[in-house]
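Listing S7. Sequence submitted for prediction.
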Amino acid sequence: MIAETVCSAVAVAGLGIAAVTAYRKRFLSAARIAAYALVPLGLVMTGAVGWVVDTAFSPAAWAGFVVLAGAWALFATTRAVERRRGGTRKERRAAARAARTDAVAPAASAPSLGQASRPAPGSASRPAGSPRGAAGSGGSGASDDFSDIEAILKKHGI
């Protein structure tokens, strides 16, 4: 009974503040204050306040809230661990299976990569018609420029 009276008084006071605000030509703020003021009155009229009062003094309800909080904490913990591991067990198995099977045949990229080490300065890997400084890199050939990149790509299996 007292909760309903307090909520009604809060609603009337809020509507009074909204009226003063509207008198000062701040209609948008007045409408917002009136909306907030009508919430407690609506809660009283729907019976939600009575339910909250009955629940607040019920030990069984508090035990239920504790069980719900425990379930939520357990769920949040398992989700955090799952994210840290990288997905569910089914997703990890699928990723491991995909890692075992090569997306591209291993020999498909072998001709483009060639040897992983740099060729010797006078080796036959340099085209015969090109002079030694043709790449403009101060004495090393064009194949030397990309050997580091090729080694990195080969290391990562690309």
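Caption to Listing S7: primary sequence and predicted structure tokens for the chain studied. The first helix runs from residue 2 to 23. The helical segments are 2-23, 27-46, 48-56, 59-85, 89-100, 110-113, 142-145, 147-155.
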